[in-house]
Automatic annotation (TrEMBL):
Organism ancestry: Bacteria, Bacillati, Actinomycetota, Actinomycetes, Streptosporangiales
Domain HTH LytTR-type, first and last residues per copy: 122-224
Signal sequence range: none
Residues in coiled coil: none
Gene3D superfamilies for this protein: LytTr DNA-binding domain
Chain intervals for the UniProt region annotation (Disordered): 83-118
Record-given protein name: LytTR family transcriptional regulator
InterPro entries reported for this sequence: LytR-like, LytTR_DNA-bd_dom
Amino acid sequence: MRLALGCAAVALTDGARPLAWDGAGAHHAADAVEHIRTGEVRCEDPRCPVRQVVAVPLGDGTLAAYGPPVTRDVLGDVARLLAPERRPRPPVSEQRTRPPGRPPERTPIRPPGRPAAGAEVIPAAVGGVIRFVRRSDVRYAEAHGDYARLYTQAGSHLVRVSLAALEEAWGDAGFVRIHRSHLVALAHVDEMVLDHGRCTLRVGGARLTVSRRNTGALRDRLVRNVRPGPL
């Protein structure tokens, strides 16, 4: 998690005492609850990278990240994804109306990290809100461990889906894996640059590197998709 967030350290508390710490500045671990309460980290060591703290609720405790790259919105996305899913129990009346001896109907369970094939909308957690991101709005997706971050014109959204699962589900919709870390929507590619064997794509305001083994096939596919307009 710390590596995915790009921060100096991550701490977990139960609200009263620290439970876990990972990263630099481990000498601050005992004061994690105080950091969360005050929003400040005091350290006499000028080389200590643990300075700023952002915290959000996680279950009955608190999740905190130390370091400028992390914002409350991003950490809220992570906490939302880590929270266990709770399924409502069926009403008692429905349980009683089932014919005797007949097993309860079961909803097919999708393996974790696999969106519905061809899904046009995918839910993304943003703090305490779940947003529904349209596939057609996604310019590219970036791997974040077992999750993926979707980039649209409006911003980015962390989803509980692996990049490999997105590649499989959205391949027929024009999404192509250009690198182990990136999946790109061909419809949003603005420019392809070849420079001394190195290939990059411009997608919106982002520059994405294409792996060497994917360059040839991607170039052919992009050119093949171009249709001449009226003269």
